[in-house]
Structure prediction request, 104 residues.
Amino acid sequence: MVDDAADLAALWTEAVEGLQDIIERHNKDARPRLTSFAMKSLWYYQPERATMWDSYAVVALNYQSRTRHLSDIRTADIAEAFLADFDTLFTANAALIGAEIADV
Prediction:
């Protein structure tokens, strides 16, 4: 599913750049950092494919997978690596996750 991770990372990068450009036009003082907002928005519109990524998800993934992802989302490469590792962890634990959230 790395292709999906790459696609999502590209969508995320496009969303971040688009949002930053829009806001920058209205706020000449600083370029906003909207990486977390863009990822959450991507999840909202693509809930079956996208991962809601925030600092808590990074900490959990790093702990469970013994990875060293950064909490700061800056590039499509970083996003792709995180999304691919998240997908690997989720796929390996899908039955357990499904059982745990079945009643929710």
Summary: DSSP finds five helices and no strands in the chain.
